Amino acid sequence: MPEIKALLFDCDNTLVLSEELAFEACADLINKICAERNVTVQFTGETLIQEFVGQNFRGMLLTLQKTHGIDISPEDLEKYVLQEEDAVIAKLKAALRPCPGVDEQLEALQRAGKYQLAVVSSSALRRVRASIEKVGQDRFFQGDVVFSAATSLDKPTSKPDPAIYLHALQKLGKSADESVAVEDSKSGTLSATRAGIKTIGYVGPYADSKKDEMEKVLRDAGAVVIMRDWSEFPAALAKIESGEV
């Protein structure tokens, strides 16, 4: 069993409680895009989360084009992606909070100095950096260790494509079996596990009534251990390190 040397954290709703805020901003923009094209579909932040959790905005627009027959030119797509970034960052800067208990775990990991800590997100790099800076988590992720499927790759993509995890491993100089990922969504868990990385599924941000369902979703997507609260992280990591899972 190789020694675990790198911990790769998803950002949205894993490190910071951003999904609800971000999806509110997304819904406003997507409804405007649909209205401009005479498509009568209407989204709220909540219905968007149900349909698209774990995808970035580019991924959402590409899916919408297929499912609702919306025509968006490549130029408009790039324009909307930037507009969404601006709208989401404004909301995050106003109201973002860290996930409960995560800072305590990051502080303990930083003190121990045993692992390389990195962020691996579908969201745009500007948004990820704004998020971790807003809540003061940037102190845990020093240097070039924040990776974005929307920004860091030559060809932008979104989870569940494993490309961003493979890119992060390459840049960090770590192998998949030396690494552990933490993810809260099906698409994120698939992205990490398809890259060969053992993944801890985190269901903390979901409503209590949804936790059991999401635990099954993340296990089915390949998560080897589930935690409901960040206080369970040391035990979850120990299970992987001991080869128990």
UniProtKB/TrEMBL annotation:
Pfam families: HAD_2. One of its GO terms (molecular function) is phosphatase activity. InterPro entries: CbbY-like, HAD-like_sf, HAD-SF_hydro_IA, HAD_2, HAD_sf, PGP-like_dom2. PANTHER family: CBBY-LIKE PROTEIN, XYLULOSE-1,5-BISPHOSPHATE (XUBP) PHOSPHATASE. This is Predicted protein. It comes from Hypocrea jecorina (strain QM6a) (Trichoderma reesei).
